[in-house]
Design brief:
By secondary structure, the protein is mainly beta. Helix content is 9%, strand content 62%. It is elongated. This is Outer membrane protein with beta-barrel domain.
Length: 206
Amino acid sequence: MKKILLVAFVLITSTNLFSQNFTYGVVLGASYIDGTVQKSSNSITESPPEKLDTHFGVFVDYQFSERFGVKLNTQYNRSYERYRFYYIPNSFSDEFSINSIQLIPHLKFDVASESGYYKGGYLLVGPRMSFVLSAKDQSGNDVTNFYKSTNFGAQFGFGVTIAKMFALEILGDYGFSDISESEPMEIRTAGAYLNLNFNLESIINK
């Protein structure tokens, strides 16, 4: 985790040398992710969690042509998953909280080139990589081993820049990989992210 944060810090501080093509800032947001349990022999099912997933981190945005750029989010994510376990003749529900670091590189396409790359609307598409740090159940027991240490997905969505300092993004997220370590059971995910970006470069170099 320290290495990931160090890389993010170096990326952000180095952008001062390329301020015409780089922006950087802070990203905050929430997400709703729905899981589907497969191959569990009906011993476990997933239901909607009672808490909202949240994330925060930093981003860098590099414009490499008139309408195209690359945007990287490095963020801490706290997510929740609720399961119901069936052990004849009883059953019970439990909610797991998962802490992870996410790296999300997006290809960015400006759909309003007349306004400028850092103005108006844009499209985003790219992979999502999640690295699980820890997980606990409602009683505080460690359930990290229930999950794979890494999982992968893809995101597609759009954003709009509000003034120059803020941007709002809505992204669909589809998980390519099984997130569960409990074979032969598999858990697949799909959902959506809502991001609010604060462009610090526009404030510092104003």
